[in-house]
Amino acid sequence: MGEARTQDFIANIVNSDEDSVVRVPRVYYAFRYKDHGYILMQHIEGQDCTEEDTDAVALVVKRLWAITPSPTVSAPGPVGGGPIFHRFFANHCSAVRYNSVAELQEHVNNVLARAEYPSHIRIDFNKEDGGKLSLCLDDIHPGNFRRDKSGQMISLLRMEKSLPGM
């Protein structure tokens, strides 16, 4: 399950940094049963963030966006490969696995064109961020973030998110 591999990858990175602005629950076990995926993960006590925590959540998001895959990885998707989970796609899951950022960009732009969006509304990943792969969070809602008893931020990484290319 790409979602669990991605979360565990991120947890290993941010949790190993004592000065990190965020912690991420570690994944203990993940499995599929029938049409559903289940992730058994570390429980971290805390209070859900509110709109008052917007600045702290922004710092967490900035940290998570900074996570990049190995330079040898060029395909968007979760760690270990697989479809991309994002609300852009029908049922929040891409129907195909992309071999490159260029393939993903072409698909997104074709969808926008077929949906009859004006021609100036197209995606150019190279223009946005140089085409580099990074964590893509599709639901930056304060409830997806918590503070533990010490005030440390926790990202629950509800996994409709994936690392393009990891």
Automatic annotation (TrEMBL):
It comes from Candolleomyces eurysporus. This is Uncharacterized protein. It comes from the Eukaryota. The lineage of its organism: Eukaryota, Fungi, Dikarya, Basidiomycota, Agaricomycotina.
